[in-house]
Amino acid sequence: MKITNILTLTHKELKNYFDTPTAYIVLVVFLLLWEFLFFKNAFVVGEANLRGLFDILPWLLLFVVPAVTMGAICQEKNEGTLEWLLSTPINSIEMILGKCIAAFLFVCFALLFTIPIAISFSWYGPLDWGVFIGQLLSSFCTVLFLVSLGIWISSTLSSVITTLLVTAVVIFIFILIGTPFFSSSFPLFFAPLMEQLSLITHFDSMARGVIDTRDIWYFLSFTIIFISLGYLKLLKFKFGNNKKKYQSFQIGIALFIGIALLTNVIGSWIPGRVDLTQGNIYSLSEATKTTLANLKDLVNITLYASHELPVQVQPVLRETKDLLKDYQTYGKGNIIVHEKDPTNQDIATEAKSLGVIEIQFNVMGQSELQVKKGYLGIVISYANDHEVIPYIQDTSDLEYQLTSFIKKLTTTTKKNIVFLSGHGEKSTTTDYKTLAKELSKQFEVQTFTKTDKDTSFPAQTAVVVIAGPQQPVDDATKKMITDYIDQGGSVLFLLHTVSIPQQGLFATENKNSLNDLTKSYGVDVQTNIVYDVRSNEIIQFGGGMTYFFTNYPFWPRVPVKDTSSVIVHHLQSIVLPWGSSIKIDQNTLEQQKLNAKILFATTKAGGVQEPPFNLAPDQTFSTSHLGEQIVAVALTPQDGKHGRMVVVGNSSFLNDDVVSRNPENIAFAVNAISYLAQEDSLASIQLKQKTAHKLSFEHDYQQSLIQYGNLAFAVLLPLIIATIRFGRRKIMRSKIYTY
After folding, report:
1. What are phi and psi for residue 209, nearest 5 degrees?
2. What is the mean pLDDT for each group of 10 consecutive residues in the chain (739 residues)?
3. CB 336 within 8 A of CB 300
4. What's the pLDDT tens digit per position in 394-408?
5. Which end of the chain lies in a sparser environment, N or C, as judged by fewer CB atoms within 10 Å?
6. CB 226 within 8 A of CB 253
7. How far apart are CA 476 and CA 327, in angstroms?
């Protein structure tokens, strides 16, 4: 086999593609349809990623690849040129590879049109380039897989149309094989086999931004199989069934196919993966590694997983096992992982007694909706205690759950986090239930209401949280707070200087915000409401039967200002509903010997509304005097005289209804409290896969520019290339050649 022969044939085939009008029609139609389907919902979602673009790619390749490969070999047969090609110095394998590479490069040329889309998205949001590279590599591997399949089918048939249809059907089966619709026709014990052989399973796995050796081997092995089968078909055409060379190669191909299928089915033992994502969201975080390294005794993790789980659950099971292997590796002998199958009745009884629940899975059968039962849960055991994850629905927060439970079981003493109450503050039992639940995994959470006998906070208090007082705070309580700070205590101030009504559109000043106390330390929370006309949330308004959604500048999404702070290191932004701006007094800071670090501030399109306050969403927001508005500050002592402080001009951003839609808010609070308590925070683990990568536009025309600019580019570039090539050919044909 000569590389020069392969390159020569590749060049010839590529030239044929780019000199055929049909190829340009296929290319332009494919790009227009692909990008149109993506842009239809891209700005409604508002995320700075191309997931929607690549999710629909395999289904479009179902039509594109057969159109590109249908005539690769069968047309050579019809035109009588195959015998001539096989008699030239170019042998069969070189011909197969040359045609496969040419078709692969032609389709990949279309995939490169995603790069301008990614670049344009990155201008208006924090695009994760690692994920995009994974999506592009996944697409290239899929194209190689499908092109080699198409070339093989083209070598077996004589009709171009038949080749087109058969290739499309086979690709459809490879896509469909991993779906519940297809797998429901088989017994459940076939589900792992279906999942391992499904094209979509491996495409989605790599498209996350994780390059796994199992996925690479899947694409590589099947590509080799299809190329070998095509080569075998050409050998049969050239030598016939009775030739020894054909028969020996036939045996070798059969053995390789068997090995490839077996290794793909039981491929879980193949090690190795590279996490390309920003922040390595699919790898263990440093907080987890530190927790595992500090273990002093054995922790047992038992995975209860039924052998017969539906195909839609198989990817979750695969990722769970991968994660547990990482825990065992970094546990250095102190993490013992067990796998048990509750198909055994005794094990099922054991699982139920520990809290693992039996789940009913809806599986679509051929003519009815079937209900199957199974287990997929984890029990973490230490000494005589245990914690349970009853059912693993997805793995997005599995690392956080495992690490927090391990820390909870193995930590003997916890620091106290005290929430001040008695002045209309937010409550951990009504307003901040989610925050209290997360904090309880690392700390003891208490509520403190001062009595006449109290002169200080409870002993062992690590952090005091003051969350939006609405009623007067007496001087004795203020003195207790300042004494606590002056003695080195840490405080989280969540101050609301404006009272937001539960109903109505007019807010009032909150004169009991405790702003006078933080002002004495150089941080003055202003009596205003911050808005951002560029970066804000879409909020639902209305009542009764009438609802509407609109961008609401009073709910700004404020980006991180100083990424060097450990409090916000893993964050992109938080949502601050009806927050207030902060003014920093440098003179007071110097007098108090404090350093201030700005944590969050609005974009340069931020503004403030002074009293009287109008909360109406349809009002015209002033665009004069816009600029960054500081909303969160961290204070650290210069000489250790005072404790640490974090001041936020808002307390509602941690309400349960707000954090349910914005997990980064809860992560910021946990980070801030961990920083104030001088403890390692686990919030960065929880946040890894939940960070919002929002698109932010200054002007409406920018969305249209991205959409129509990319659509126009997808049409114009192929047309320009076609015009140049066809123009050159016309000039060449018009010339008179002499010999």
Report:
1. 105, 15
2. 83 86 90 91 80 91 92 76 67 86 93 94 87 94 95 89 92 82 61 75 88 89 89 74 66 79 66 80 85 90 87 83 90 91 89 88 55 85 90 85 88 88 93 91 89 87 94 92 91 93 85 92 95 88 68 92 83 92 94 92 93 89 91 89 89 93 89 87 65 72 88 91 84 69
3. yes
4. 887 788 889 888 988
5. C
6. no
7. 50
Q: What is the pLDDT of residue 433?
A: 94
* DSSP code string of 579-609: ---EEE-HHHHHHHTEEEEEEEE--TTEEEE
Sign (positive or negative) of CA dihedral 557, 558, 559, 563: negative
Nearest 5°: the CA angle 147, 151, 156 is 150
Domains detected in the chain:
3-276+709-728 (no CATH), 288-407 (3.40.30.10), 416-678 (3.40.50)
To which residue do tokens 């969201």 refer? 281
396, 382, 459, 439: CA torsion to nearest 10: 10
**Does residue 612 have a cis bond before it (omega within 30 degrees)?**
yes
Question: Do 164 and 70 touch, CB atoms closer than 8 A?
Answer: yes
Nearest to 493 by CA among 681, 673, 675, 679: 673
C-alpha span between 139 and 30 (Å, rounded) = 15
Rounded to two decimals, what is the model's pTM? 0.74
199-207 vs 57-69: helix axis angle to the nearest 10? Answer: 120
How many residues make up the chain in this entry? Answer: 739
Q: pLDDT per residue over 248-280, tens digit each?
A: 677 777 887 887 777 776 655 566 788 888 877
C-alpha distances in Å from residue 515, one per residue of 295, 345, 473, 487, 649: 43, 62, 11, 21, 9
Cα 61 to Cα 69, 113, 127: the distances in Å are: 12, 15, 25
Separation CA 646–CA 491 (nearest Å) = 7
